[in-house]
Amino acid sequence: MKKLSARRRHPLAALVVLLFALAATGGLYAAFAPADEAKADTTSAQSLAIEEGKKLYATGCSSCHGTGGQGTSDGPSLVGVGAAAVDFQVGTGRMPAQSPGAQAPKKPQVYTQAQIDQLAAYIASLGPGPSIPTEEEYDPSGADTARGGELFRTNCAQCHNFTGEGGALTHGKYAPELDGVSDKHIYEAMLTGPQNMPAFPDSVLPEEEKREIIAYVNEVQGEDAESPGGFGLGGYGPVAEGMFAWAIVLTLLIGVAVWVAARTAKARKS
């Protein structure tokens, strides 16, 4: 006890206790405070994005979709469509719509990407829905292109044709051409099902299969894409191209054969 009391009365005892307390406080702060601050900063940034998105929505979207996204006779409800739907529709310029019609066409985007993110944050706050995919989710690097072709022909070719050239639907609607569409927007279209397209959530079409389809579309589209069979005939597929061969080419060949036979018979008579 006397030794302990002597140590307590040592001139450096107070300094040692102070240093120990500072070290303990710093360690606790380093362990807990940064995470809390980061979370607070993220929450603050998200709230600010939602607030700014709400202002953009009130100016450019509420006249058709309602003041709270509930929808009107001029536009569907946006509650629960998710941020991915906003990123696709606004990022491809389809929204805001220029005029009523059977389908909103692709056009130059009106908003910057930062504004699109703010609009998406506000719409996402109205109800749960698909979020904007990360680059890792939609990057087709290393994906199986052949498998993607099988998936595309099974799920997409009925409307977009075999090479993504697009095609007409009913009542003035159409499946758009896929040439020049970004990987992210193709992924978002499959995820959300814009306009006349059915949605393919991950429960129906997993991420890996979406990437394979994107890889196939990139392979058959673009400047380097070539048709191994010659003229592609619009990419309508083997049935349409086969019908063209039989109905047009074969008819021409028969006509040429008849003409040659007639000329030969006439020459013999002469």
UniProtKB/TrEMBL annotation:
Q: Which UniProt keywords apply?
A: Cell membrane, Electron transport, Heme, Iron, Lyase, Membrane, Metal-binding, Repeat, Respiratory chain, Signal, Translocase, Transmembrane, Transmembrane helix, Transport
The UniProt entry, under InterPro entries, shows: bc1_cytC-su, Cyt_c-like_dom, Cyt_c-like_dom_sf, Cytochrome_c_Oxidase_Subunit
Is Transport one of the keywords UniProt gives this record?
Answer: yes
Q: Name one GO cellular component term.
A: plasma membrane
According to the UniProt entry, what is the EC number of this protein? 7.1.1.8
Name of the protein described by the UniProt record: Cytochrome bc1 complex cytochrome c subunit
What is the protein's membrane topology class? Answer: Multi-pass membrane protein
Indicate the segments forming the Cytochrome c domain, all copies.
Answer: 48-127, 143-221
Question: How does this protein assemble?
Answer: The cytochrome bc1 complex is composed of a cytochrome b (QcrB), the Rieske iron-sulfur protein (QcrA) and a diheme cytochrome c (QcrC) subunit.
Reactions listed under catalytic activity: a quinol + 2 Fe(III)-[cytochrome c](out) = a quinone + 2 Fe(II)-[cytochrome c](out) + 2 H(+)(out)
Enzyme class, UniProt record, top EC level: translocase
Q: Report the transmembrane regions from the record.
A: 243-262
Q: Which SUPFAM superfamilies match?
A: Cytochrome c (SSF46626)
- Where is the protein localized? Cell membrane
Q: Per its record, what are the GO molecular function terms?
A: heme binding; iron ion binding; lyase activity; quinol-cytochrome-c reductase activity
- What post-translational changes are documented for it? Binds 2 heme c groups covalently per subunit.
Amino-acid positions noted as binding heme c 2 in the UniProt annotation, renumbered to this chain? C156, C159, H160
Tell me, in one coarse class, where this protein mainly resides.
membrane
